[in-house]
Amino acid sequence: MTLLQLKYIVKIVECGSMNEASHELYVSQPALSSSVKELENELGIEIFTRSSQGIALTVDGAEFLTYARQVLDQASLLEERYKNAKPRKQLCSVSTQHYMFAVEAFVEMINSIKSDEYEFTIRETRTKDIINQVANMLSEIGIIYLSDFNKDVIGKMLREKHLEFHPLFRAPLHVFISRNNPLAGKKKVTMDDLKPFPFIQYEQGEEGSFFFAEEAVWPEYSPKQINVTDRATILNFIIGLNGYTVCTGIDNGDLNNEKIVTVPLDTDETMLVGWITNERAKLSKAAENYLEKLKSVVTDHGYNLID
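That's the LysR family transcriptional regulator sequence above. Prediction below.
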C-alpha cells in the first residue's frame, strides 16, 4: 500500500468517477483502475462497486476512506513540519435541504476562519441525495428534518447506511406567502385557507416520495401545484404567482421581507431539524466550526437547541 494509492482513492471519491479522477491526476484510466484493483486485492476488500451507472463506495470502502484521509492528513503534517511544504487546504462539504439558516451559518463559518487557502462546498439538494452524499463521504454533514410521518422510513434508511441523526431544534410549521396575499395579516392560517393559492414544493426526483418531501405537510388536493429545484425560484414564485410553501419559519437576509412574510400554520405537526454524519467518519475542524455557527444562527433566530 502506498500514499499514492490512498490519494487515488480520495480523488476518485471527490470526483465521483474514475474517468474524471484520471484527468485530474494526469493518470490514464486503465492505470488508475489497475492501481485501485491491486489495492483491493492486497487488502482483501472491495472498495468500489462498479456498474453501468458508474462507481460507488462499498461499506468497506467508506470505512477505508476514513482511515485513508487520516493517513494523508498525518503525511501532510509531516511534510509541513520537515519540508516547509504549504499546509493542506481547509476542506469542508455540507449537503442540506433548502434552508436559509444553513447557508447563513456557512457564510459565518467561512468568515471566521484564518486560512490563506480553503475549499468548501455546500449543496442544496434533494433529501435522498443528502443521505447518499454523507453515506459516500462526499459530504461530512447533511441537514434534514424528521417528522411523525417520515421518521420511520428516514430512520431506517439512515441506520442501513451507518448514519447518525443529531437533533438540532424543533420548529413549528409556517408558510411563506406574499405580503400582498390576503392571508398575510392573519395570526395563523389553515390548509383550507391556502387552497385557492398555488402550492410550491421542492422536487425530489423520479424516486421521490412523500417520505422525502421537504414540506412536513401538504394539501390533500391542490389544483395548482408547482415543483421546483432551487430556493430562489420558490421565492420568485411566491411573489409572482401568489403561491405558498411550508417551512420552518426561519428567514434571514435572503428573504425579501418587503415582499414575503412567514405566517404560522395551524397544525400540531412540527419539524425536528438536525444534522446527519457518517458514524465511521471523524469531523474535520472546519466541519466542527460549521456546526458551532449553525447552532449560533439557530439560537439567534429565537429557537431553542436540543441538547
